[in-house]
Amino acid sequence: MTTTQVTLVQIDNYGPWTTTPEPRREMDLQTLQSRLFADIAQFLGHRDAYVFFTRFDNMIAVTNGVDGAAHAALQESIGNRYPVTVSLGTAVAERPVDALEAANRQLQVEGSAQDEHRTEVLAGEYLAETTPSDLQVAHFDVVNATGKYTDQLNEFDTFINIERAYGSLMRHLRERHGALSFFVGGDNIVSVCSDLPEGAFADAVSHVGEDVDVELQVGVGRGASAHEAGFAAKHALEDCRHDGTSVELFGAPAAGD
Amino acid sequence: MTTTQVTLVQIDNYGPWTTTPEPRREMDLQTLQSRLFADIAQFLGHRDAYVFFTRFDNMIAVTNGVDGAAHAALQESIGNRYPVTVSLGTAVAERPVDALEAANRQLQVEGSAQDEHRTEVLAGEYLAETTPSDLQVAHFDVVNATGKYTDQLNEFDTFINIERAYGSLMRHLRERHGALSFFVGGDNIVSVCSDLPEGAFADAVSHVGEDVDVELQVGVGRGASAHEAGFAAKHALEDCRHDGTSVELFGAPAAGD
Amino acid sequence: MTTTQVTLVQIDNYGPWTTTPEPRREMDLQTLQSRLFADIAQFLGHRDAYVFFTRFDNMIAVTNGVDGAAHAALQESIGNRYPVTVSLGTAVAERPVDALEAANRQLQVEGSAQDEHRTEVLAGEYLAETTPSDLQVAHFDVVNATGKYTDQLNEFDTFINIERAYGSLMRHLRERHGALSFFVGGDNIVSVCSDLPEGAFADAVSHVGEDVDVELQVGVGRGASAHEAGFAAKHALEDCRHDGTSVELFGAPAAGD
Amino acid sequence: MTTTQVTLVQIDNYGPWTTTPEPRREMDLQTLQSRLFADIAQFLGHRDAYVFFTRFDNMIAVTNGVDGAAHAALQESIGNRYPVTVSLGTAVAERPVDALEAANRQLQVEGSAQDEHRTEVLAGEYLAETTPSDLQVAHFDVVNATGKYTDQLNEFDTFINIERAYGSLMRHLRERHGALSFFVGGDNIVSVCSDLPEGAFADAVSHVGEDVDVELQVGVGRGASAHEAGFAAKHALEDCRHDGTSVELFGAPAAGD
């Protein structure tokens, strides 16, 4: 059984800020958002957690092993270095979506995301310890994406295919299994799941093939942290690439990692 | 009639690099990608151009007013500061997708995106001058996204709605009009279009409403650069917000901007 | 008695890289160096350690509480995201300079800083635990720097005064006490010391006044980490500012910090 | 005759901000300062200008070729992305120090650097055009610094030597010639000078050797921009390294640069 700790990172009152006193330059907003995400990725990544950019003003993180003090340090550091602040809600559940739902409620009960008085909320519960199979992560990519798309189509039409595959997969895994799936660039999608069997991944690959005609392959890993599970998934996906299989489970982490 | 200059930014041989000699930590890749995007956003943004993260390993930029020397400077600076290099293909056409198609071909004829010997391509044509209505940009957002989604649902389910709206809109505008539409965070979508009339935007809003049941509004602007057109679009969108309209065209840029 | 853990961060073979195949643009080098420093400051800062930019290609860190695994993670992450790599040598001693000397030797015995085959050295010893008075940090600034210098002189002449004060202080504390002192911007100097009495700081302030005619004040703190000691020092320095004293010791850390 | 345009970049009311409501974490301040410097280095560097970190809260830039609109864009972008704002004063003179003096006065007449109401000043005059020998830049480094210092001494004692050489050189060139000299990392010092003859540089090298017993070499370049002059200086310094000379003037820029 999985135990997933999820943190919602929400920029406080961001929408109004972007247009006050008048609209800010779009490229400055893009820079601010992506650098904030990068900083959080570094902070959490070095603690073996994952964060996904999602909508940038709201980011979803998988934070098993990161305690309340670390969340407080992250929040303080952002407040010291950015013109915006963030609220952080954290919760734990077997299924990722249930953890997110509870994490999200921690902020919603304190007020609206656009309430200028609801800033720097830090709320929730954190796992006291981690165990080796708390997390299951699946790493999908598109079979021969460079040969079939990138080198053939214009980039936007390539992107349409990747985006359709992502949309199809993320909805399927959310509805069927309560998993949270994120596009992470290129042709890569990372899903944080509960304890799903091999058949569930084969079904997901089939579903996307039938739904939008894009062929996926997937490696699946387990671990005590998002990095550990995700790294095992990356190794399993390498096995797919080398062996031409479409689902590989529980790849062993590299020695010393 | 619009005249759109589009640049494709492609990280050279990136896929293999991410797994050589073994998979690199996902949060380091996320950090690298988002900071590279941020740097390009700053470089181009200060020249009144726009860049969109798209798939991060391939980014699409609208670069009217940015000449070949500036493209060369960007490429050199990235090569000096990152462990990866980029290729840049640029082309001009009335419709954004046609410009991208030609820009993309500049790189494809030189070799595969995963050809380790095809690095730092710098190719294409650049507009010699700009005129005040070369570009049309539309800025969409979701009506009352915070009240209807962010404050009510968990973030992933909110994201599913935004993502579906984006997918529906980007495909509609691509197929019908050759426009390129990009999610830019929150509930915002920026479309780079040819010279579309008001009815085309009203149709797009209707289409998304019927297709995925998300209500959009849109401001549209014209200008000599992506920033100028996009900034006018932002102001027009502010008018939608204040007046409750769903389409506003050609908002005047703020004085002095 | 203090117990200081010092880490030398050295960019591998950096000099030759900056001029190969021909000199790289100075502003790209400045950007690379200062962002690398910023990343290390974030990584170590969140672990309550300090790093100083020193010469940028060689940075000195005070890393009590940061273990070998964290040093390895930092080294790997830099290798994943920068065009250069770093070597890290760590050692422990009562006096900061002795710890640095031993840390430095860890790298020197492996080869020259410009030996292209000596890369990513990770060597040394790390404290197994920390105790509340392991570190002593002094935070100096210039009395009324804004009124006397910044608002009166041109910035370079202001800087000459600050630089002279820094040079005088850093040499005095190094020779007399084996302390390591770093300019951290503005008119601020942070010294990492062994267990010096109040008189040693009063002497240092007098020495600089006589030597270069710049009036300093100083707050001194103790703690289990560089942040803890440095934060107490900042609070003590606030007392100097409010009370007009020139030396304040062992300011209590703020509640909850 | 040289024509030097200098810009003073001053963070508004920074000192008080760093301690309000209580002292901020030192590593957050270091990160903020060095990233702000890096952003300005990118912005100005891509316009062939130079900026030096100096005291970080006050930075000195050599901005021939950068007009008032670009200065305004830089100021706005920083205000959009940082928790602090900057004021910019610019002036032109033959000698760098005279340009800085006038640039600095542009801000001083508007109020104190710590006046909370004096924010985002943008003042001064900008050159209407550039000519090929407007700027003279000298690039110094220490002869065999790695062999004599880095690989032999502990890093702090190495730094003491470099710092003493820098202090000696910067004061000599300031007093004798009104030049502005900046440590740029490693063992490198960049001087922005007026039209000095070869003998002035030989004298400077001798002065430092006698004063603090550190042996320097120097390449000198001319150009229409800081980058052009500085790049020629770097090439000239390469000649020193290869030929064992201590002063090389007017190195030719690399073809195509």
UniProtKB/TrEMBL annotation, chains A, B, C, D:
TM ranges: none
Per its record, the protein catalyses: GTP + 3 H2O = 2-amino-5-formylamino-6-(5-phospho-D-ribosylamino)pyrimidin-4(3H)-one + 2 phosphate + 2 H(+)
Among InterPro entries, the record links this protein to: GTP_CycHdrlase_3 (IPR007839), Nucleotide_cyclase (IPR029787), Rev_trsase/Diguanyl_cyclase (IPR043128)
Q: Does the keyword Hydrolase apply?
A: yes
Molecular function GO labels: GTP binding; GTP cyclohydrolase IIa activity
Query: Keywords of this protein's UniProt record, alphabetized?
Result: GTP-binding, Hydrolase, Nucleotide-binding
Enzyme Commission number(s) of this protein: 3.5.4.29
Function comment: Catalyzes the formation of 2-amino-5-formylamino-6-ribofuranosylamino-4(3H)-pyrimidinone ribonucleotide monophosphate and inorganic phosphate from GTP. Also has an independent pyrophosphate phosphohydrolase activity.
Of which family is this protein a member? Belongs to the archaeal-type GTP cyclohydrolase family.
Q: Which PANTHER family does its entry note?
A: GTP CYCLOHYDROLASE III (PTHR42202:SF1)
Q: Which NCBIfam families match?
A: PRK02240.1
Name assigned to this protein: GTP cyclohydrolase III
Please give the organism: Halorubrum yunnanense
